[in-house]
Amino acid sequence: MRIDGLTLFLVVLLAISTPYLTSASEPELVDCSNLLILLDKSLRAVEEGEPSAYQMIQSIGSASIPGDVGNLHKNSYDLLLRYYNLSARTVDEALTKEEAHRMLSELSELHSKLPDVISQYVNKLSACAHDPGLSNSLRTSISLSVKKISDELIPSLTQIIFSKYLMSNRLIDVRLDKEVYTPGEPVEFEVTLGDPTLTLSGASLYTWPDLRFIEYANITSLGGGKYVGFLRTPSAEFVKTPTRSEGVFVLIITARNASSSENYVNYKILKVVYRVPKVWVECPASIYRGDSIELNLYSDNYYNATVEFGDVLVGYLSLVPGLTRYYVNTSSFNLTVGVSLLKVSVHPTQDSPGLTITKPVMILPRIPKVRIVFPEIFFTGDGFLTILLINDDTEESQLSVKVYAGDSLRGEYTLSDVLVARVFVGFFPAFLTNLNIVVEPTQHLKEPYLYQRQVFVVNPVTTLLTGLASIFLIVLVSNKERSFMIFIKGNVVSGKTSVKRVVREVSSYLKSPYPISSRIAELYYATLRKLGIPLPKVTETLREHFSRAGLSGFLRNTLWKLLIITEKDLYSSKKQDYRKAVELAEEVTGHEGE
Amino acid sequence: MKVSNLLLVSLLIGVMVGLVIMFTLPSTTSYSVVNYGDNGISRLRESYKAFVITDLSTSRDISPRDTVYLIIRLDNVTSSEAEIILRLVKEGGYVIFSGGWGAIESLNHYAKLNLTVTSSVIYDMIYNGGDRFHPLGFSSHCNCTLTTYTPYYVVTDKNTDVVVYSSNFSYVDLNGNGYMDIEEPLGSFPLGISLSYGGGRLILVSSPQVFTNKLFEANKDFIDCLVSDRGLIIDQSWVKRDFIEYLRLVTTTYEVTYPALIFLVSLLCVVAYCVFKER
């Protein structure tokens, strides 16, 4: 029994607590998925050396994030900012040896700290992210970026600083004819090796800072440890960030000591100025599902571009200087209602890098064009409501219409041009109801049209009948109310007589022919009825009637006392004690019964 | 009949006493000018000595050219209200309209503003007024920031004059789950829009909490900039549906003191009692 009771208790507890357990909880203060996405974007921007990366990581890092994540967030972005600053200084500034030493020790610290701190931060965010699938894919992407920064970019930066500022330039001396080039321009450089045991083993050009290989340089030996190198500056396809007009590359020259098999490296930063493409895209902010999108593209030059909508490749187009108009037909796309992204990707040319322009387009539901006309207040005699529906949709010849009153279906119709729907809602005299009208389209791109409005329905016929019935009922039960009040005053308070008896007796005797404003007078009349004495005429007083009745003895004395109280209750401003009157009436009727 | 009268009078007194108690309790109605709590707008009224109206149609007595109207709605506006709002703007008035999604959408529909108002909310973990539910906007028109609360995403086209933008780190919660998903857009979104008609401006702010006592101090520069040297009129016509709140508003407008009100109610009770006694 004890186990059964416990089980029952648990079942009841579970049943009570279920709504609370299953109810939707409020979103948390910290959106860990958003922080993961921001971290992924920041790392990629740092990795690719985007000029906007500095602003991005500084802004994100300075944000105050509540909870345990806050410190890890700050530490992670501090480290990224430090790395970015070191990378920028290496390219842009001439350093002293002391500064170069300091930078190397900072890089060493970064190399050891960055993976750990970001890993802790990512673990923390993954634990609180709402979507495990999303957090897993972001973790992978973030760890790849961190690995690249830690294993490739930091070591190469270290080597560059070392060779540029600390290693003796006598071993490998590289001289470029100038510092800034144009795209495709030939670059000539001289290499002088400071040691006769060294031979030049190669010179290659890489992107900076993500170190993607571009090309080998042609090397010609001039003898005596002197070489001449030749290459062309890369086309703009190697530049990932179109907002930046300057592409930065690194020329890496390696020499080898044949006897000791030791390698020596020197680096030279090479800058190329590109033309930033100027392309603007105009498109509507919203369209109805299935509509075409008119794109106006303004361009400063000739470019090739691709257009994607909702991650689907729509087509290729050739931009000309000035305006190019392009139409995207979305009727074949299975677009969902909401925001879809339109992406125009301008392809890179020899002297201008690629450009991607993204525009959000709101996809609105496409619903049949139908006018629905009915008043807010209906007057109906037969319980039917009349609703007028007009089909203004040229694409839809026949529409299916369902009409609901509240939740229940009240009628199904077919709308061609005009429909007068008569909907039965019942005979209640007056009530509020929600009229829900669903117009179903036939075309697959369209959504059903839902029209909802609250209406007030008045049925004058049933209102009149209900009013009459109410009056009739009031008349019918009015005496019952008096009986109830007498019962309350005379019996519940005094508690002398049984409820049943008093209600039965009084209701049977209270048949007053006149409207009387005194309950004691009503009781007096009732007593006279019970005694079988004819009631007073309209023309005589109670006393005249009493003397005419010819009573005697106890009955006369007691009834006289009741008459005096009745008169006082009728004519005096001070009302008499009703309980006393009831006692006297009971004495009179009780004596008569004996 | 005596008992019935007694019951009736007791009921009357009970109702009146109840009303007095309810009336004397502080208002908690959102966006009410008599609510001194965080979600009220009493500070706005006091700081700008704003004139309060309970019927939009009465606003025609005041010259729109010298006026900024603040209309905050949580429920839909009617077509006639939208007409009045447009007329005020066309006559040179500045109308600041703010409210829930339904309110802005209904105004958009009736006034044919050609905006796309979504029910999706904008959050910002990076630039915010305390937490991500309070995205911080920047107004280049007023050169100040604006702290909002769960603003709605309004899709605009290139011709729309956006007066307040969110930061580049804000995002739109399209699926309404309260968190960012990979397909949800991250970037800068409009938080306030200005539409010009005739000589006036209709300024839509997609977060009504901007004007509440809680955010008043943070947003004072923005409100100063909008109001400038014009007079401020606050529309409270929706308050008429809440009798107690309406009573509070009327008493503060006509400076009826609590003792005077209690005296008035007591007097009504005595009169009611005498009437029933006579009957």
Task: Tell me what you see in this structure.
The complex is a heterodimer of chains A (594) and B (279). Mean pLDDT of chain A is 81; it is low at 1-24 and 493-500. In chain A, a hairpin with an 8-residue loop joins strand 16 and strand 17. A five-stranded mixed beta sheet of chain A has the order 2-9-8-4-5, covered by helices on one side. In chain A, strands 11-17-16-13-14 form a five-stranded mixed beta sheet, with no helix packed on it. In chain A, strands 19-25-24-21-22 form a five-stranded mixed beta sheet, with no helix packed on it. The radius of gyration of chain A is 49 Å and the shape is elongated. With 594 residues, chain A is of the alpha+beta class. The relative contact order of chain A is 0.05. Chain A contains twelve helices and 25 strands. Chain A has helices spanning 2-22, 32-47, 53-62, 69-92, 97-128, 132-166, 460-492, 499-509, 519-531, 542-549, 553-571, 578-593, and strands at 172-176, 180-181, 186-193, 198-207, 213-216, 218-223, 226-232, 246-257, 262-273, 279-282, 286-288, 292-299, 303-309, 312-319, 322-329, 338-346, 355-364, 370-373, 377-379, 384-391, 399-405, 408-415, 418-424, 430-440, 449-458. Chain A folds into five domains: 32-163, de novo design (two linked rop proteins) (Up-down Bundle); 167-273, Sandwich (Immunoglobulin-like); 279-364, Immunoglobulins (Immunoglobulin-like, Sandwich); 370-458, Immunoglobulin-like; 477-593, no CATH class. Chain B is an alpha/beta fold and 279 residues long. Chain B has two domains: 2-26 and 254-278, no CATH class; 42-241, Rossmann fold. Chain B is 35% helix and 23% strand. Chain B is built from seven helices and twelve strands. Chain B has helices spanning 2-24, 42-47, 79-90, 101-110, 213-227, 243-253, 258-278, and strands at residues 51-53, 67-73, 94-99, 116-123, 136-139, 144-147, 152-155, 161-166, 171-173, 190-197, 200-205, 231-235. Chain B has a nine-stranded mixed beta sheet with strand order 1-12-2-3-11-10-8-5-6. In chain B, strands 7-4-9 form a three-stranded antiparallel beta sheet. Classes of the chains: A alpha+beta (594), B alpha/beta (279). Chain A binds chain B through residues 26-31, 33-35, 37-38, 41, 59-60, 63, 65-66, 129-131, 134, 137, 282, 284-286, 338-339, 341, 360, 362, 364, 485, 488-489, 517, 575, and chain B through 1-3, 116, 118, 120, 123, 125-128, 131-132, 155-158, 167, 169, 171-172, 174, 177-182, 185-186.
